[in-house]
Structure formats: structure tokens, C-alpha cells
């Protein structure tokens, strides 16, 4: 009789590029951002206020709609920019935009009566913004190659070529 040993395989845990982490986190942020607004329509009185031309304390106007579109478009564009910008510009852009969205996100709690609903939505959005800042802040750096580290500097090479 053979005694079978259970086989335990270790799952492969591949490194996820920072660009993919940033794009995925911005995508998650946008889902929360949109769904909090969509679910807000179920709050009593919200639809009536919209039909009467008010959102929160603001009059519905082209200016309001353009501002709202801009506030949504920036994180949407960050998904694409996180995948396409060069590393240095990518890091700076993500740090800047995520930091600017912290007060914008916190502002959404002002004057709201459904604090559990908005509190949860805002807390989750702030966690995602913190992750974006962390991923961008800790962006891995590459070590200089051995050839560059041990080879002559540019000025020495230029001087030798001129001679």
C-alpha cells in the first residue's frame, strides 16, 4: 500500500507593474465615484431637487454640468495617463492629481444627511487615493548599469575623442 503525500504547489505571485497598479486603482476610484452618485438618486428628495434645478446647494446650469464633467473626466483620463506617460511625468502627475482629489472627495461629505452612506463611499475613495499616492511615491528606481558605473564619465570620453 502506498502512502500518498498531498502535493502543495506554491502559487506564482508575479510582480505587477506600477503603471498597472495606478490604472487599476484609478479605475476602482472611478467606479466608486460614479456609483456613489448613482446610488444618491435613491435618497429621498434628490430627484425632486434635480427636477427643480438644484443639486446639493448648486443651481443646475451649464457651468455646474461642465464643472461636474471636469471633476469626473480627470480621474478617467488618469487611467490612460497612468499607462502611457513616461515614468517621471507619470509619478509627478499621479502624486499631484491624487493629492488634489483628497479635499475634493472630502468636500462631498459637507451637508449630507446620509453620513453612513457618504462616509463609507468617501472613506473608500480616500483609501484608493492614498494607495495611488503610495504607489507613485514608492515607484521603483533602476540601479545604474555596471558599465556606466565603472566606465569613464562623459567628459573624459569627450576629451579623449578630441585629442
UniProtKB/TrEMBL annotation:
UniProt key word Protease: no
Cited InterPro entries: DUF6326
Cytoplasm listed as a keyword: no
Name of the protein in its database record: MFS transporter
Organism of this sequence: Lentzea flaviverrucosa
Spans through the membrane: 22-43, 63-85, 92-110, 116-137
Pfam family, one: DUF6326
Superkingdom of the source species: Bacteria
Keywords (A to Z) from UniProt: Membrane, Transmembrane, Transmembrane helix
Amino acid at each position: 500500500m502506498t502512502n500518498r503525500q498531498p502535493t502543495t504547489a506554491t502559487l506564482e505571485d508575479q510582480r505587477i507593474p506600477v503603471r498597472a497598479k495606478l490604472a487599476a486603482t484609478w479605475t476602482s476610484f472611478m467606479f466608486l465615484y460614479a456609483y456613489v452618485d448613482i446610488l444618491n438618486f435613491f435618497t429621498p428628495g434628490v430627484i425632486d431637487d434635480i427636477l427643480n434645478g438644484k443639486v446639493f446647494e448648486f443651481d443646475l446650469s451649464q457651468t455646474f454640468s461642465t464643472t461636474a464633467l471636469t471633476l469626473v473626466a480627470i480621474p478617467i483620463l488618469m487611467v490612460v495617463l497612468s499607462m502611457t506617460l513616461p515614468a517621471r511625468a507619470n509619478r509627478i502627475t499621479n502624486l499631484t492629481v491624487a493629492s488634489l482629489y483628497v479635499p475634493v472627495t472630502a468636500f462631498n461629505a459637507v451637508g449630507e444627511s446620509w453620513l453612513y452612506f457618504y462616509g463609507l463611499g468617501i472613506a473608500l475613495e480616500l483609501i484608493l487615493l492614498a494607495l495611488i499616492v503610495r504607489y507613485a511615491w514608492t515607484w521603483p528606481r533602476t540601479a545604474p548599469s555596471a558599465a556606466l558605473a565603472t566606465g569613464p564619465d562623459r567628459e573624459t570620453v569627450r576629451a579623449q575623442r578630441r585629442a
